């Protein structure tokens, strides 16, 4: 089935998310839609899938204009979508999830045997090896994604959209997904692959369309270099390689021993973790999201209630310390969700820059904000960190994601730090902003500060890490050198430490 999008335009108030976008996808083709986060890719696909209605433009399938009022219309027309966040019911079986929204009955009862047979038929065709009676919550993430694909194919999808499908996959699972996409392409399916990961685009694409600020800015061949693709995405040349000297490996700054964290239900989410971070090194904590990294980070910052073991910073035990005490001890922190946990959208840039120091000098004296001191500091800091805004009084909520992250970095790195913790520091950022963030993290390490980077992006881990600790189900599988291969890291992310792998103390 041939897909054509013509002049698709969609605005949300003054923001034009899609601006007269044209896109054609042929049967038996993998067409990559590449662009930074916020470029308008997902909006365009949500229009295609009937989740949003375009303000203007037309969708055609095999030359016939379509008018979708919801996802049901799109599915009936032959369009399927595999979402970044799976649309599955964890306590249902694979077959039951297949039936959702398309329930078939026989003699007044749900026809589960037919659903089971459909799962087995599609699984056999593509080698998925899915058990129709398995509970989704018991399946690994990569297998859950196969369930999503089977759901779409069970409804005879001729056009299949993958929206950032590798965000929660290990490298091995990503390779398996790419193999599946090629199978689908060879069977005649038209595939739209949405991503901002350059390596995956070059590996799987037949054609590449680049979107920037809601507009199509060009097409590229899969043979294009990463630098060429990044330049199209951002609109300027980008340094994709982090320039850094080897770590000097100084004295131990942070020591974590026997650390365990229990959640509100009493379940162990971080299990007996040990590691050290030396001054002047970056320890990256890698793993698929949801394996205890968030809870470990929160424990370091005093944000978890039930913590066992010890956390020692510069010889001082800070286990169980309050967040205020941890910050005052010299810990800088970039949370993984900047909008929820790092910034106050209604506050100005200047006000956000003093959030860590709102209880005393240099910005507060006698209970009053020292406006002149704050304005002088904010003006200089905004310039140093290249925050693009009309002025220091601009509300942070009006800034782009990249500029918001620069405000967070500026606030945290402008203090005298004994430890810097950055969780998912480039999530949602374009390659230009990633370049800037990485440079600042490396510069902090080079000043002799111990740095912890928590990231699910292996490219980021490889670019920054002097050593890498990989977490799986709350435990550290192993700590390895920063130059460890993606294949080995992928195995570790699945819980396996190969016998021949060199560990790094």
Automatic annotation (TrEMBL):
Keyword line: ATP-binding, Cell membrane, Membrane, Nucleotide-binding, Repeat, Translocase, Transport
The domain of life is Bacteria
MF GO annotations: ATP binding; ATP hydrolysis activity
Listed SUPFAM superfamilies: P-loop containing nucleoside triphosphate hydrolases (SSF52540)
Gene3D superfamilies, per database record:
P-loop containing nucleotide triphosphate hydrolases (3.40.50.300)
**Where does the ABC transporter domain lie?**
3-238, 254-498
Where would you find this protein in the cell?
Cell membrane
Q: Could you give one GO CC term from the UniProt record?
A: plasma membrane
What topology does the record note for this protein and the membrane?
Peripheral membrane protein
Q: What is its main location?
A: membrane
Could you tell me which PANTHER family the record lists for this protein?
CARBOHYDRATE TRANSPORT ATP-BINDING PROTEIN MG119-RELATED (PTHR43790), GUANOSINE IMPORT ATP-BINDING PROTEIN NUPO (PTHR43790:SF4)
Q: Give the protein name, as stated in the record.
A: Nucleoside ABC transporter ATP-binding protein
Organism the protein comes from: Amnibacterium kyonggiense
């Amino acid at each position: 089935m041939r897909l054509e999008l013509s002049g698709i335009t969609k605005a949300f108030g003054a923001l034009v998310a899609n601006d007269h976008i044209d896109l054609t996808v042929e049967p038996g083709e993998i067409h990559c839609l590449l662009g930074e986060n916020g470029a308008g890719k997902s909006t365009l696909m949500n229009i295609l899938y009937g989740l949003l209605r375009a303000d203007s433009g037309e969708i055609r399938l095999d030359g016939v204009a379509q008018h979708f009022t919801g996802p049901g219309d799109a599915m009936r027309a032959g369009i399927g979508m595999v979402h970044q966040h799976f649309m599955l019911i964890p306590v249902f079986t694979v077959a039951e999830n297949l039936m959702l929204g398309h329930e078939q009955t026989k003699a007044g009862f749900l026809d589960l045997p037919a659903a089971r047979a459909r799962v087995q038929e599609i699984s056999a065709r593509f080698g998925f090896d899915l058990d129709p009676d398995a509970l989704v919550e018991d399946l690994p993430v990569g297998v859950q994604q196969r369930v999503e694909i089977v759901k779409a194919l069970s409804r005879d999808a001729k056009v299949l959209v993958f929206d950032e499908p590798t965000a929660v996959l290990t490298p091995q699972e990503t390779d398996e997904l790419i193999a599946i996409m090629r199978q689908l392409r060879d069977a005649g399916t038209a595939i739209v692959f949405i991503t901002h990961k350059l390596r995956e685009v070059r590996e799987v694409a037949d054609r590449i369309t680049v979107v920037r600020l809601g507009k199509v800015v060009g097409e590229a061949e899969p043979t294009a270099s990463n630098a060429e693709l990044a330049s199209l995405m951002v609109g300027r040349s980008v340094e994709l390689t982090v320039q850094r000297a080897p770590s000097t490996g100084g004295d131990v700054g942070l020591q974590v021993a026997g650390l365990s964290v229990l959640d509100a239900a009493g379940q162990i989410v971080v299990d007996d973790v040990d590691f050290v971070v030396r001054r002047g090194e970056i320890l990256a904590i890698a793993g698929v999201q949801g394996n205890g990294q968030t809870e470990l980070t929160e424990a370091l910052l005093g944000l978890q209630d039930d913590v066992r073991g010890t956390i020692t910073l510069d010889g001082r035990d800070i286990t169980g310390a309050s967040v205020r005490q941890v910050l005052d001890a010299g810990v800088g922190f970039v949370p993984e969700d900047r909008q929820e946990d790092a910034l106050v959208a209604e506050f100005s840039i200047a006000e956000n820059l003093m959030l860590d120091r709102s209880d005393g000098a240099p910005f507060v004296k006698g209970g009053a904000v020292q406006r002149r001191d704050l304005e002088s500091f904010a003006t200089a800091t905004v310039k140093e960190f290249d925050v693009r805004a009309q002025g220091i009084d601009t509300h942070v909520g009006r800034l782009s994601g990249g500029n918001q992250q620069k405000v967070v970095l500026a606030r945290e790195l402008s203090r005298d730090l004994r430890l810097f913790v950055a969780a998912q520091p480039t999530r949602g950022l374009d390659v230009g902003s990633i370049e800037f963030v990485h440079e600042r993290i490396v510069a902090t390490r080079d000043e002799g500060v111990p740095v912890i980077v928590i990231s699910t992006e292996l490219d980021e881990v490889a670019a920054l890490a002097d050593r890498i600790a990989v977490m799986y189900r709350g435990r550290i599988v192993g700590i390895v050198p920063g130059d460890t291969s993606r294949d080995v890291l992928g195995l570790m992310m699945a819980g396996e430490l190969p016998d021949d792998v060199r560990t790094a103390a």
